[in-house]
Amino acid sequence: MGHRRPLNTGPGRSPLVRHQRQIHLTTHKGLLGEYTPKHTSYTRREPVGVCAQLAPWNFPLLMAVLKAAPAIAAGNTVVLKPAHTTPSSALMLADLATRIPPPGVLNVVCGGPATGRLMVEHPVPAAVSLTGSVAAGVDVATRAAATLKRTHLELGGKTPVLVCADADISDAARTIVTGAVTNAGQDCTAASRVLVVDAAHGPLLEALVAEASTRRPGPPSEPGSAYGPLNNPEQLARVRGCIDALPPHARVVTGGHEVGAPRLLLRSHRHRRSARGRRHHTYGDLRPRDHRRALH
Predict the structure, then answer these.
(1) Is the sign of the CA dihedral 113, 114, 119, 123 positive or negative?
(2) 181, 226 contact by CB (below 8 A)
(3) Element (H, E) at 84
(4) Each residue of 132-185: pLDDT tens digit?
(5) Catalytic site positions
(6) What is the pTM of this model?
């Protein structure tokens, strides 16, 4: 049974439905026209005001610019907090900004998680932006909801790579390892796990180990370095903890030490989800692998 609206109120609703449909079909093109005779509808874009922005440590300068520049271009002011382990580039950006926009347009506040929480809870900011973990996103969204702040959340995931039976194994291995070691795996778009069909499992494992052995770590200034160190001791402990907590059905097939080749894990049993490195974004060069009979 549908909604029982009186018949005498129904016919007049059809034009409204059509108008609403047309509005939503054209809005994405920026063409919001008349929807009531002799009346004009238009879009007026206004700044929201102060934006509190929490940047991550994995791409500190890039993320600071990606957060601050669009907000300022839209007419807002920004209070940016870089990660407490990577404040230098944001402070350099703030120094450069003093030469261009008026004072107070871009502000940088340094501190840890407690500082970020105070920024989110403060009554002045009208919008909050965070790039971080899912847990941090939940915390920010919960705190921002108390004052109905607009929120923009870019949260980590567990990016899978699917390898089918007809895949080019060499190309797949090269792409997976590149995606795994870029920025030492400290990237929300890193190739975090591999799902491979049984038919390609053996050849892919061999190719991954061979490809990983060609990528060596080193200082950024050293020619031939494929990736540098992890960002901080806590991050190192997090990656090490995933290796130390390997369940019986998983084993390290290459690497596994703090300085050396990228770490690759081989899961020998299907459909088990207890390995910590498979469920949580590690932000490190740790790649769980899972082989299946088929991918549907």
Answers:
(1) positive
(2) yes
(3) none
(4) 989 999 999 999 999 999 999 999 877 789 999 999 999 999 999 988 888 888
(5) 154, 188
(6) 0.73
